Amino acid sequence: LYHMTTRLVEEHRRDMLLSEGLSQIACIRFELGLPQTNMVFPSLTQDSPKTVKQLSAALAEQGIRVGVVGEHMLRLVTHNWITDEDVEKTLNTFHQLLNA
Questions:
Q1: Contact 94/49 with Cβ under 8 angstroms?
Q2: Which of 9, 45, 66, 70 is the most buried (most CB within 10 A)?
Q3: What is the pTM of this model?
Q4: Which of 68, 99, 82, 100 has its CA nearest to residue 17?
Q5: Using CA atoms, how far apart are residues 100 and 81, in angstroms rounded to an integer?
Q6: Where residue 2 falls among pLDDT bands split at 50, 70, 90?
Q7: pLDDT per residue over 29-86, tens digit each?
Q8: Cα separations (Å) of 55 from 36, 67, 70, 90?
C-alpha cells in the first residue's frame, strides 16, 4: 500500500484503456458499468460466438488469465505487473477471438 500509491493513476489509466477497448467489441457489455477500481467486469451478450468458459480457455492459451464470475461475466484485474503492452495484447486477443 505504501509503495504503490504513486502508480494508482497509471493503473486506472490502464483500466480505462482496457474497458474502453473491450466495449468496442459488439458482443461485450458492461452490466456493472465501467470500472471504478482495477477490476474490469465485461459481460458477453447472447450473440457472442463463445461462452465465457470457452473464451477464458482460449485466452489462457495465449497467456491471458481471466476469471469466470458468472454465466456471462468475466473478471480482469490490472496491477503493477500489467503493462501497456499487456493491455494491447489482451484487447487484440479478445478482438481476434470474438470477431472471428
A1: no
A2: 66
A3: 0.88
A4: 82
A5: 29
A6: low
A7: 998 777 677 889 999 999 999 999 999 999 999 999 999 999 999 999 987 788 999 9
A8: 24, 10, 13, 12
